[in-house]
Amino acid sequence: MADKSELTAEIKFESTNKKKRVDRPWGSYEILTTGPGFQAKRLIVQPAKRLSLQWHRHRDETWVVARGTARVTVGVEELTLGRGQTMHVSRNIHHRIENISSVEPLEIIEVQTGDYLGEDDIVRIEDDFGRSD
């Protein structure tokens, strides 16, 4: 019989043990983990705030609502998502996340996949905070 260590496949990720919160006008985010071609973030969107209407050249995003209720815009669709619901956004598609609660924060787990995941791959179309490109 094989020993337990031989049966366990080990997967190593570039873990970001130094979780750093980055403040934004709409709330904050922190990078949970990164690996080859992917990155996971935790977004906190403050009540009645929204991210810019934006798109990316190099990455796709998948959102999971962990807490709260979101209004999301993906292309021409506008949907309401609750806890446990997901949305996939392909690169080059205009998108936005909005917290429709006036009381509770919205928490989203965002998984980015692609060949480049830098913050400078954000093209802003509209922004409540004057950051449009």
* Helical fraction: under 10%
Low-confidence sequence ranges:
5-9
Order of helices and strands: HEEEEEEEEEEEE
Largest sheet: 7 strands, antiparallel
How many DSSP helices? 1
Into which percentage range does the β-strand content fall?
over 45%
Provide a compact summary of the structure.
The chain is mainly beta and 133 residues long. 3% of the residues lie in helices and 50% in strands.
Structure write-up:
By secondary structure, the protein is mostly beta strands. It has a single domain, classed as Jelly Rolls. About 5% of the residues lie in helices and about 50% in strands. The protein has one helix and twelve strands. The strands form three sheets. Strands 1, 2, 3, 4, 6, 9 and 11 form a seven-stranded antiparallel sheet that branches. A three-stranded antiparallel sheet has the order 8-7-10, with no helix packed on it. Mean pLDDT is about 90; it is low at about 5-10.
Features:
single chain; 133 residues; mainly beta; Jelly Rolls; three-stranded antiparallel beta sheet; globular
